[in-house]
Specification:
The chain is of the alpha+beta class. Helices cover about 30% and strands about 25% of the residues. Among the domains are: about 5-70 and about 110-190 and about 285-390, FAD/NAD(P)-binding domain (3-Layer(bba) Sandwich), CATH 3.50.50.60; about 420-495, Glutaredoxin (3-Layer(aba) Sandwich), CATH 3.40.30.120. InterPro entries: FAD-bd, FAD/NAD-bd_sf, RIFMO-like.
Length: about 500
């Protein structure tokens, strides 16, 4: 069996795996991504959150995101109707104070949306441009963790040819039924099934419905069906979660095409509308976290590490943020600037983020199931959970509850956006100044010489109280007033230079 050496092997070419590969390449650790499917799925399943769009902007894809994306409704805005074309029962969304924060807390428009397939295509193109490799139709069949490398055995689906790949590190981003997790012997002991649904992706010309709704998300409840209608492109691409209908079985049940069309038309409110079904599946909406996110040099990300339902829309996004957290750390260890102990921070940090994301998912799913009447109370109740799970979560030991509406500088949290300059002379966001490098923000006058070899950039930030050290993933590593006080924080993380 022939062998191949790569710095990092990423197993899974979905949005999490492809984005993780892109982040690794961005930080100089050219990976190989393998995916058992033959190509990227064209089905527009999940959608991006504001924080994910910030991350894509930080790695240089801001213009591409603007070009590919579209403006939907404000995050979590929804309309409740007796059918898509029928009477409006309620309009709801996040409370005004939470919506105002989302309008000002980022340089990215909070209404901007990319679908899962768009994220994958952008990440694939950028990964290849940066020198990474992608192999479709390639499945992992064996895995061994050694002290200084990981050995993976893969099979080409078309030829049956086996190959061994040696990697310094392996990232399992291969979904809720992860082969990597299984081969590592890691379990998901707290997995809980919340609901059993049928999800359909389809094309239908329904006219300017989203303009009438004021959003891309509609909940329909009538005597024939309880379902969602979600616009994927503002034109003719849709998805629907069919949650309930008369006679729905207790167990997981695939629907016939005829029954699917009948339920979709009941949700739309037109028995004659032509519908082209692109994909349909029965699935369990479950939540849970793996007992470990790491075994030696193999690490888990996305649904392989934590699974959640689609309620709240953060599953894919939490996984992409896993990859963003992990990629800079692997690259920093591989280039020798940090000790391997840096990777010990991955699991506690991302476990805290996943807990915040899962809290939203559980709360919304149970809220939708129990909903009877106006939904405003539900959205008031989950608003803080949404903001915390989406982008205002904290990393240990700074992950305690705080008022998410107070977008202040906090150690262990995302560095906040502030506009610098003026609209007339050109504005730049503090997030753009930091981009994806170690950054020290100081009051005018500086804060000492940065350590050699780290590539630390220093920027003046008027009005700043003390100085702030921002990590390559945009999180605050240190905030204080002592001269060069950031150096102990770097050394705690395993800095080897300077």
């Amino acid at each position: 069996m022939d062998a191949l050496d790569v710095p990092v092997l990423v197993v899974g070419g979905g949005p999490v795996g492809m984005a993780t590969g892109m982040f690794l390449a961005h930080w100089g650790a050219a990976p190989m991504v393998i995916e058992k499917r033959d190509a990227i799925s064209p089905v527009p399943r999940a959608g991006t959150s504001l924080r994910t769009l910030e991350i894509l902007r930080a790695v240089g894809l801001g213009a591409a995101v603007q070009e590919a994306g579209r403006l939907g409704g404000p995050p979590m805005r929804a309309v409740f109707k007796d059918s898509g074309l029928g009477a409006t029962l309620h309009r709801t969304g996040l409370p005004e104070r939470h919506t105002r924060l989302l309008e000002t807390c980022s340089p990215v428009d909070a209404r901007l949306i990319l679908t899962q397939d768009q994220v994958q295509r952008l990440a694939l193109d950028e990964l290849r441009r940066l020198g990474g490799q992608v192999r479709f139709g390639t499945r992992l069949v064996g895995l061994a963790c050694e002290d200084d490398h990981v050995r993976a055995r893969v099979v080409d689906a078309a030829t049956g040819r086996e190959q061994q790949i040696r990697a310094a590190y392996l990232v399992g981003a291969d979904g809720a039924n992860s082969d990597v997790r299984g081969l590592l012997g890691i379990t998901v002991p707290d997995r809980e099934v919340i609901a059993r649904l049928n999800t359909v992706f389809f094309r239908a010309r329904l006219g300017p419905l989203t303009q009438e709704w004021g959003t891309h998300m509609c909940f329909v409840r009538n005597e024939a069906v309880y379902a969602t209608l979600i616009s994927k492109d503002g034109r003719d691409r849709w998805s629907s979660h069919i949650m309930d209908y008369p006679g729905k079985p207790e167990g997981l049940t695939e629907l016939t095409e005829a029954r699917t069309l009948e339920l979709l038309r009941a949700a739309i409110g037109d028995d004659t509308v032509p519908i082209d079904i692109e994909a349909a599946n029965a699935w369990e909406a479950a939540t849970g976290m793996a007992s470990a996110f790491r075994k030696g040099r193999a690490l888990l990300a996305g649904d392989a590490a934590h699974v959640q339902s689609s309620a709240g829309g953060l599953g894919m996004n939490t996984g992409i943020q896993d990859g963003h957290n992990l990629a800079w750390k692997i690259a920093a260890v591989l280039d020798g600037s940090f000790a391997p102990a840096l990777l010990d921070t991955y699991e506690p940090e991302r476990r805290a983020a996943a807990r915040a994301s899962l809290a939203l998912s559980r709360g919304m799913h149970r809220g939708y199931q129990a909903l009877d009447g106006a939904p405003d109370d539900l959205y008031e109740k989950i608003a803080a959970d949404y903001l915390r799970g989406m982008m205002f979560y904290g990393y240990p030991p700074h992950d305690g509850d705080h008022d998410v509406l107070d977008d202040a500088i906090r150690t262990g949290h995302r560095f906040p956006h502030r506009w610098l300059g003026s609209p007339g002379t050109g504005r730049v966001s503090t997030l753009d100044r930091a981009a994806s490098r170690w950054t020290l923000f100081t009051p005018p006058g500086g804060h000492g010489e940065p350590p050699a070899g780290l590539g630390l950039q220093v920027h003046d930030l008027p009005g700043l109280d003390g100085a702030v050290l921002v990590r390559p993933d945009g999180f605050v590593a240190w905030h204080g007033t002592a001269r060069d006080g950031y150096l102990p924080a770097l050394r705690d993380l395993g800095l080897r230079t300077g």
